[in-house]
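Schema walk-through. Below, the input block comes first and the output block second. Nothing else is stored per chain. Lengths vary across the set, and this one has 326 residues.
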Amino acid sequence: MSLSSSSGIVLEDTARLADICGVNDYNLKILERLLGTKVFSRGNELTIESDDACVNRLFKALLEQLLEAMADGLPMSPDLITAIHASLTPEGQPSGRADERCTDLFKSTAIQVPGAFGKVYPRTANQALYLRGLSSYGISFAVGPAGTGKTYLAVAWALRELLTKAHRKLVLTRPVVEAGESLGFLPGDLAQKISPYLRPLYDAMEAIISFETIRRLEDNHSIEIAPLAYMRGRSLNHCVVILDEAQNTTREQMKMFLTRLGEGSVAIITGDMTQIDLPRKADSGLAHALSVVGGIDDIFVCRLDGRDVVRNPLVRKIIEAYESER
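--- output ---
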């Protein structure tokens, strides 16, 4: 239980207070860096040294979200603090200004998927902007290197839409770029043939909801997997459609995909421009689409970079090393 006062947050649960402060008040130092002001623990109350109404509002929203996350079973950690702060301040500013934006600035972009293992939080400002874009645009592009969460966050958002019945179906597709083995020689039906290519999407789903839930959604055809080549001629209504590994589409495939959207549908296109497997990189449908339709007002483009890598600290260093080579 916590109570909001004019100067801060009063926590009646001393164990929760200790968790938020961390060992030797380490977590308070994280909060100070993110908020740009001193944070104090006095008795059972947490306060900040700021007269800025916007910063105070952010501080209280952040603590309330942290308490809610811990109540959901998430362990307190610097990563959790940073993630929730990013979800509340997608503009990427450590603190807001006390202006007209302050009233609704700190609205969390965390995703609550029904029946999930826990809330899904963006962990960087760009990821928070990405989630806001998904909720505001009919077509969204997420472009960035491996480990930036572009596929994971797309799947989490899509599962919420599906399980809350905001959309009727989730369609997962990607171009099949073969590496010495033709799909025709793989065993099984179409779903079994394409399944290895969609494994990253399934990995993301299994990290969010149970395998039994995924199987149930597949059995009632709420989740559909389809190779991109089989999308021609279709009209997808009331669906969330995720096109993964879009850097490996041709220009013709990308145009075909973008024109499949029917009434009430949303498309999410993800890709990594550094991992184009086409014979000629200039033929990438993703690169071409960004140059042709990226400037349309109703289309959202989120560009992630090495600073958004959350998979593993070493992955970030590897990506930065390769970027420095270019």
